[in-house]
């Protein structure tokens, strides 16, 4: 995790985003929100395995960013994440927003 500047924050996911990692990742994302950046960039290109808990975390975080009028971009999107979203009927546009 690294800060780009005071108004932007960035987080890079590891190779796995499953129920085993959700608590730790949720904590890291909560810490980002606590710093109140207006833009958040999540890099998912390393994700090789994701389950329903990981997808739920991403959707919940995207909804929270939308409610708080924060810009969220998840790029680049790994093939695994894109395929999992398609399989579950989730549009990739649901994971990013530009308030």
TrEMBL record:
One Pfam family it belongs to: STAS_2
InterPro entries tied to this protein: MlaB-like_STAS, STAS_dom, STAS_dom_sf
Domain STAS: 11-99
Protein name from the UniProt record: STAS domain-containing protein
Taxonomic lineage from the root: Bacteria, Pseudomonadati, Pseudomonadota, Gammaproteobacteria, Alteromonadales
